[in-house]
Each structure stands twice: as structure tokens, then as C-alpha cells.
Design goal:
- The relative contact order is 0.18.
- The protein is elongated, with a radius of gyration of 19 Å.
- By secondary structure, the protein is mainly α.
- It has one domain.
- It has three helices and no strands.
């Protein structure tokens, strides 16, 4: 809860922090998606790029479709997170920054890998 009576500009700080978290999550999220899409796009043209398929996705078709499905589902899910912001805790800003970077930065990298692999496995069951 933000006390807006004493300083109405506090709401701008809350929104700014939410946007920073969304940006951190989005950048980390994009890194993982590139590891899914780039090998799928170029494996047929250059088989040496199969080494980049670190998630061992089943086929380029399910790979790209899984990434698109994940992307379509995650964007609406993270908008409320960016608007809500984070819970205020009376602690040094450095500690808050490190904690939020661990949660949203590492979470933004790990979540797409797990989710895209899971979606790829489900798609493989239905498409093959």
C-alpha cells in the first residue's frame, strides 16, 4: 500500500519500478527464446547449428510453435506484475535490487526454458 496523501508522485515511482521489473524479465526471457528459435530456423541450412539446440527440442516446427505459444501466454501474464510492482520492505536499496534481479532476472531466463520444453513435448505428442 502506498501512502499517496503525503506525496502523490509516489505512484510514479511504483509504476517506474514495475516497468523496470518487466524490462528485466523481458530481456532475460528473450535470451532463452533465442536459444529455442535460432537453432530451429537455421538447422536445415547449416546442420552444425544443432549444437545450439541445448533444449533438445524435437523438431523445428514444434520448436517455433512452442516458442510462439509461450510468448503469447507470457506477455499478458507479466503486465499485471509490472503494474503491481514489488512489495516494499524496509531494507537497503542494494539488497532489494539484488533480490529482484535474482527473482526476475534468473526467473526470466529459467521459466522460458522449462515452459518451451514442456510445450514442445505436448506438441510432439499431438503432432506426431
Amino acid at each position: 500500500m502506498v501512502d499517496l496523501d503525503s506525496d502523490p508522485s509516489k505512484i510514479l515511482r511504483v509504476v517506474k519500478l514495475g516497468k523496470q521489473l518487466l524490462t528485466t524479465f523481458s530481456i532475460a526471457n528473450d535470451v532463452a527464446k533465442y536459444f529455442a528459435i535460432i537453432p530451429a530456423m537455421f538447422m536445415a541450412a547449416n546442420p552444425k547449428l544443432t549444437v545450439l539446440n541445448i533444449m533438445h527440442l524435437s523438431s523445428p516446427a514444434t520448436d517455433i510453435l512452442a516458442t510462439l505459444i509461450f510468448n503469447a501466454r507470457i506477455i499478458p501474464a507479466i503486465i499485471p506484475l509490472s503494474l503491481r510492482g514489488v512489495t516494499f520492505r524496509p531494507e537497503p536499496p542494494e539488497k532489494t535490487f539484488v533480490r529482484n534481479m535474482l527473482i526476475y532476472g534468473l526467473g526470466g531466463v529459467a521459466l522460458p526454458f522449462v515452459a518451451i520444453k514442456a510445450i514442445d513435448m505436448v506438441l510432439t505428442l499431438f503432432m506426431h
